[in-house]
Amino acid sequence: MGVISRRKFIKTASAITATACISNLAFTKSVAEAGAQDKVSMLIDTSKCTGCRSCMIGCNKWNELPIDVNKFKAVEEGRPRFSSTRWVDVVFNRHNGDGRSIQENWLYTRYSCMHCTDAACIKVCPVGAIEHSELGTVDINPRRCIGCNYCIANCTFNVIGFDRARNIARKCTFCSDRLIQGMIPACAQACLPGAITFGTRNNIKSIASARVEELRRKGSPQADLYGLKELDGLGMVYVLEMGKENSEANYALPENPEVPQAARVWGTVYKPFRSILVAALFFALWVNKGESAVKKD
Is residue 117 part of a domain? Predict the structure, then answer.
């Protein structure tokens, strides 16, 4: 293989850098403009969820993750907890509503990665290991992840775990490996009370809206949807029988989720230059290799 001149190398590297930057912008734009019918979504109907945690078992079984038996020994009230082996959690919260019986005094919520359209983890990943798929899901490429933990620190919903043994971030994959086989996500298939519905975003929106109207007719006028507008749309859409007000206290869902400002700055300032930095590193290694060869001669 012939030796290329440094001028030619710089010219080629610049072209690669420019192409990569344009591709990043084009990819982001294509995801934002993709038709809703092409994106997948899941509906979590909190009015049907019984806290059985079969969704957790289904997820761990399919992904060959160890089951945390302590999670099933007692009711855990409060915010969900995630790790490299727990990608789905069920939140238990007491609701002190007037006229509700003791049996009805609990609110249950299935919780995992929300697969946000405006995803903080994608903005801050320095190596481009996290991307939107063609289906609108947020995927982590384990071969590219360097274990920097920026995604974990900036995640709006705190749903990403860290695998110390493999030094990579891990989370709900939306069962992308099942989707390509024409199967539905494991948690949706395992849900005993039928609180989880899988489908396209347009289909899920219709089902969710109809369910909210049904709940309102049955005496829950505050019933509302969560996830259609939050962060430009979430892959997980929730039917909240008690409404959005106090959704964080009732369902552990922040009322006004936002991407951290630091993540926006990082994504705006750093990401456009990521390819330039990679090209610069490649150039430095090439120069070092050339100088090493001269010294050997």
Answer: yes
